[in-house]
């Protein structure tokens, strides 16, 4: 099974995973002198404000992703970038622990996935997802604004909408985990397990948070961590946890004294409870079918758009250079997905280790002291700063962070920091 001149690829979903797949297919097919008919089917208009036109995430792009996009000739326009982030401030009880970037050349930015908050005021921010989909269209993809009802099996898969049916040589499912899977049960696809987040937007005077993301850990009940993320005139509240209460955002603002930041007479501007994938899907490829992005596998809790880029590139490269059979995807695509899944195993261990450290007062104080001590040392010695920076930005693999945090220098620094704390008593 090979793609040839005139082969039709239908991509279901026009978010980053779908757009990146189209962009990679068009780039690689041009190199191979192959003329493909690439269609993206997406029902939403990402340039409209509110949750209905948004892919519902915190909207932080790692520097790794920004650099990777340059390989496709993609440079973020200034109007898409809401804030450039150089500091994460961890709220540790009554203390605040700032983590500054160790490499100013690695740019982390915040963006809007849709057209901004539902109750936001003009001018509306430009959507990252809308811009990316437009890039795919400019480079040759056809965009069809429809809702997909089913993807049927057959010698050629058929993608069904309310108005028409598209027979495809290859179907790429890039619909994420916040919509109903449209694959016919005969495909055998089983989506990833998910957890529910709570998100909203608040108005802020421009520049109030400047270039800093604030991270909180303790409340509301069930919180793993919550972020307050600068986005131009607004700030995004993004809470991840287990069994968060229905009024999690209001509780979060109350308990951390954040309501004082909101201008008097204004209120929460949007509000959604999206799902995030926390496992890998089963049977996410077959003859003439491949699933990419969150619907297949994504990095645990962080850099989901970066994972979408990686899986899209691997799927497109396999389809162009190897073929589109189940065996081709098993050899060329599956190992990339399994590598992400394996790293997530370290991520789970790492977050458990962090939770234990945070809730043990002596360890939490030792971590804080060790990071304070590193501020006066050479950048190469900033082990704990790098570990926590990587944990919250998605800039490093979980495997690397896990073993770095348990390295002899890291444990020695913690031990010395604990001794200093003990000596101050």
The gist of it:
It is built from eleven helices and 19 strands. It is of the alpha/beta class.
What descriptive keywords fit this protein?
6-stranded mixed sheet, 425 residues, 19 strands, 21% strand, 3 domains, 34% helix, single chain, D-Amino Acid Oxidase, Chain A, domain 2, FAD/NAD(P)-binding domain, alpha/beta, 7-stranded mixed sheet, 11 helices
Structure annotation, total helices: 11
Principal-axis shape: globular
**CATH top level assignment of the largest domain:** Alpha Beta
- Mean pLDDT value: 92
Any guess at the CATH architecture of the largest domain?
Answer: 3-Layer(bba) Sandwich
Radius of gyration from the alpha-carbon trace, in angstroms? 22 Å
Q: Numbering strands along the chain, what is their spatial order in the largest sheet?
A: 6-5-14-15-16-13-17
Number of strands: 19
- Low-pLDDT stretches are none
Structure, described:
There is one protein chain. Helices cover 34% and strands 21% of the residues. By secondary structure, it is of the alpha/beta class. It has three domains: 8-46 and 127-193 and 279-342, FAD/NAD(P)-binding domain; 83-120 and 194-276, D-Amino Acid Oxidase, Chain A, domain 2; 360-424, no CATH class. Strand 10 (158-161) and strand 11 (165-167) form a beta hairpin. The radius of gyration is 22 Å and the shape is globular.
